[in-house]
Design goal:
9 helices; 8 strands
Length: 268
């Protein structure tokens, strides 16, 4: 706990068995109350590794996408009465050692959302970020800052901390199940007026670190542009979109008529 607030780390995973142990073992246990791993139907031993580390583990019955994985993560964290939820990738690209700093900024009510930025400082390219990803990151971030009248160093980090209020206010169930979920969520955060802080985060790119390929990156880029356009049209009252509807579907979803995931046990 931090300042009396329960801290839960959620880790969306897919084929992360080679890096998950190192990721979880660096999580600061003096601050974090619970670790949740949600596996998106991996083909390796990710679930076995997760349960052996004592993480509360859930498994999708089929591969449903990165966005759906996060919906499951946040749903289960809220059901545990988490006050602060930190989303950390299981591929060890981001250091878990920043969890305390990120959670503190929310626990002491400085921000509602905190991002681990790879762009603040000079570490992105030095950490191995492919140059085309760096250039596209900078272009898309500039575009979004202009269209959304905001100022962030990057919108595309996978290291994020949220207050409970953010996760129960945003209509997250209206968002995509694909990679653009991340971007839609940040756009919702800005649209609904929550404060965002950033901390500089070193990054590591290596063979085992997950990364979408070029064609998926292009698809994601167009999704980002469309998200920003919808944001601007909604602000100008020229369009109405479900992801910015305050009455849209929210978490937690306590009951599913057709459950798509289940809890794993060490025997799995």
């Amino acid at each position: 706990m931090l300042n009396g607030k329960k801290v839960v780390v959620v880790i969306p995973t897919y084929n992360a068995s080679k890096t998950l142990r190192k990721t979880v073992e660096e999580i600061p246990q003096d601050v974090v109350d619970q670790v949740i791993v949600v596996d998106d139907a991996s083909h390796d031993d990710t679930v076995t590794v997760a349960t052996s580390l004592g993480a509360l583990t859930f498994v999708h019955e089929a591969n449903l996408g990165y966005g759906r994985n996060q919906k499951t993560c946040y749903n289960e964290a809220l059901k545990l009465d988490a006050d602060i939820v930190i989303m950390l990738h299981g591929d060890y690209q981001y250091t878990p050692l920043l969890i305390t700093a990120m959670a503190s900024l929310i626990a002491y009510e400085q921000f509602s959302v905190v991002l681990g930025s790879r762009i603040l400082g000079v570490g992105a390219l030095a950490g191995g970020m492919p140059r085309y990803k760096y250039v596209s990151n900078r272009f898309l971030t500039l575009f979004q800052n202009l269209f959304q009248s905001h100022k962030l160093s990057e919108y595309h980090t996978g290291y994020r901390a949220f207050s409970r209020q953010v996760l129960t206010t945003l209509p997250l169930m209206e968002n995509s199940d694909d990679f653009v979920f991340d971007n839609e969520m940040l756009s919702q955060v800005i649209y609904f007026g929550f404060g965002i802080g950033e901390v500089s985060c070193p990054t590591k790119y290596f063979e085992e670190a997950s990364s979408i390929n070029f064609s998926r990156s292009v698809k994601y880029g167009f999704g980002v542009l469309w998200t920003s356009l919808r944001f601007r049209l909604q602000r100008w009252h020229l369009g109405k979109f479900r992801i910015f509807n305050p009455s849209g579907r929210k978490l937690p979803v306590v009951e599913e008529t057709q459950p798509y995931y289940s809890a794993a046990t060490p025997s799995d």
